[in-house]
Amino acid sequence: MSQAPAIVRHTSGDRPAAGEVRIAACQYGVTTDVEANLATAMRMIDLAATEKPDVIMTPEFVNHVSWYDDRDQAWERAITLDGPWITSVGAKAREHNVWILINGIVRRENGRLTGTNMMFNPQGELVAQSS
């Protein structure tokens, strides 16, 4: 069984026309290992950045597969807004001067968890969230 290539190009040229946006969509298997998922996301963002996109998107629930044994496990594995996921993705956005969109389970006030889209600007700032 052959493995799919890491990068599949669908383009009409090397540079987008005026007003067009180049988007790199990363697709890979997310696991139950949060640290391994972070390492994979960073590697895939680096790989996607070689194509010079304007925006890089990662898979849904980038930090952990979308099921958990219980609420405590979900809380433990959720992204914190001052934690390594936000810091690392922001650093990659700055490094590659690119917008990055991730989606993950995020810890909120009052013990809530939300599935959240998070957008980082090319300066590495988390500029938008949607739950």
Structural features:
alpha/beta; Nitrilase/N-carbamoyl-D-aminoacid amidohydrolase; five-stranded mixed β-sheet
Structural overview:
22% of the residues are buried. The chain has a single domain, classed as Nitrilase/N-carbamoyl-D-aminoacid amidohydrolase, CATH 3.60.110.10. The model has no long low-confidence stretch (mean pLDDT 90). Strands 1-2-3-4-5 form a five-stranded mixed sheet. It has helices spanning 34-49, 71-77, 84-96; strands at residues 23-25, 55-57, 99-107, 113-120, 126-130. With 131 residues, it is an alpha/beta fold. Helix 1 (34-49) runs parallel beside helix 3. The longest helix is centred in the N-terminal third of the chain and has 16 residues, at 34-49. The protein has three helices and five strands, in the order βαβααβββ.
Question: What's the layout of helices and strands?
Answer:
Blueprint (H helix, E strand, L loop, with lengths): L22 E3 L8 H16 L5 E3 L13 H7 L6 H13 L2 E9 L5 E8 L5 E5 L1
Parallel strand pairs: 1-2, 2-3
Antiparallel strand pairs: 3-4, 4-5
Helix pairs in contact: 1-3
